[in-house]
Amino acid sequence: MSQSVPPSGNPFAPGSTPGPQGVPTPPPARGNVGLGIAAGLVAAVVGALAYGALMRAMAKEDGSYTELGIVALVVGALVGFALGKVGGAHPVLPILGVPFALAGVFLGQLFGYALMISWWAELQNQSLSVVDIFTSEFGNLLDAWKEETSAISLLFFAIAGYEGFAITRKVAAR
Question: What is the pTM of this model?
Answer without folding.
Answer: 0.82
